[in-house]
Design brief:
The complex is a heterodimer. Chain A has helices at about 10-20, 25-45, 50-70, 80-105, 120-130, 130-150, 155-165, 175-195, 200-230, 240-250; strands at about 110-115, 120. Chain A is mainly α. Chain A starts with 11 loop residues before the first helix and ends with a helix. The radius of gyration of chain B is 9 Å and the shape is elongated. Chain B is built from 1 helix and no strands. The chains are: A mainly alpha, B mainly alpha.
Amino acid sequence: HSSSPQGPGMPRLVTEFLLCDPDELQLQNKISARIQQEQTGWRRLGNPGTFSLMCVMADQTLLSIVEWARTSIFFKQLKVSDQMKLLHSCWSELLILDIISRQVLYGRVGSLLLVTGQEVQLSDIASQAGPTLAGLVQRGQELVERLHILKLDRQEFACIKFLILFNPDVKDLEEHQLVESVQEQAEGALLEYTSRTSSQHLGRFTHLLLCLSELRSLSTLAEDYLYCRHLSGEVPCNNLLIEMLHAKHS
Amino acid sequence: EPEEPSLLKKLLLAPANS
């Protein structure tokens, strides 16, 4: 249901942001292959369980997010030190947004569509998960429904990713002005795009910003939950996910 | 011995097509 990226009056920057997005099918095949490799290893060593599989999937998704960022407009111009600071600050928001946007754009009611293309029934998750995880999934589902009602499209998600990534509040940025300028441009492009596609434009744009703050608090809770599971040794180690977790908690 | 660069840094510094 998304309009063609180059439709009439499409803000140029929105088109640029959209072109940076990875191809969903390629991503799905790449991560599925990687997960299968992991599972063959597990057959020899004994299957560590669903939660570990989800962590490997999250780690692989995080790798694809870093790949998206480092090849993206504006971000690829930044020094590596600034790139690291920005990603350390917002990685969990981008990870949760990746999961949520997949449900809004491609998912079906009552099930969770994984990055590998597989589907898991939400009722199964609720029955297997503990209270904290079940609460996070429930809150995520509510955010999916809000964004679904708004009929968010790929263009808007592409803008939101840049809004999250280019956060001028991150400390000690060498190129603070560039980061601030990109965030302002991304906000302007999103405002222009939402006002072009919806009658009550300020309402939609403001509602999107409210959803962004809900996403921020949800990702902080998810990070804390993951860190607790890590401290009890339940998260596979020596990967990007663990490194990013430590980056914020060290 | 220099500190091992982080995985994130290695990813960001990797050649474009890797």
